[in-house]
Design a protein that fits this description.
Length: about 180
């Protein structure tokens, strides 16, 4: 039995429209995150929330917390909460993009796309665990193992997203082979 893409049930005629709706919502979400992230960018956290996600140690997380004022901490907490609403949006956009790229080539390409379609929908589970660890750091301080958990989950999330994006781009930019 072959693994099927999780969104394969969506009629072909609706896929492009749904993809572009979720892509637009994803881009809007990134715009909101850019605004929320601005006060988080300090020398201790040069990439803002991403630095915090990838801190990896209590010492680095503490340095970031110490570099943020009350507004930055509030933005961070709000952004982590908003991210829970954003997770299904980016996951569906990415999984739909992978689904659209599946039909562009033959051979192992569709099977790989099915796996990556599931990976796009699993990424938010890692994102949710990461956010829970980051909330714990905001609430109780950067005690072990929260920074390590956040970094591990963020790394897996980013890897799944990146592989899905590369697949989608290669599928579309590489042209149709069958």
């Amino acid at each position: 039995m072959t693994l099927r893409h999780p969104l394969e049930f969506i009629p072909s005629a609706q896929r492009h429209r749904l993809f572009f709706i979720f892509l637009a919502l994803t881009i809007a979400g990134f715009g909101i995150f850019q605004i929320l992230d601005e006060p988080l960018r300090t020398p201790a956290a040069p990439t803002g929330l991403v630095s915090f996600e990838l801190a990896g140690s209590p010492e680095k997380a503490r340095a970031m917390l110490d570099s943020w004022d009350a507004k930055a901490l509030l933005n961070n907490a709000f952004g982590l909460g908003f991210d829970y609403l954003f997770m299904p949006v980016y996951a569906i956009a990415l999984s739909m993009g992978v689904l659209l790229a599946c039909s562009r080539r033959g051979g192992f390409w569709p099977s790989l796309g099915a796996w990556l379609g599931w990976g796009a929908l699993i990424a938010p589970l890692f994102d949710a665990c990461e956010n829970l660890a980051l909330f714990s750091i905001l609430r109780a301080g950067p005690l072990s193992p929260y920074p390590q958990i956040a970094t591990g989950c963020a790394t897996l999330k980013f890897a799944l997203i990146l592989v899905g994006l590369v697949y989608g781009l290669v599928g579309w930019l590489g042209g149709k082979n069958h």
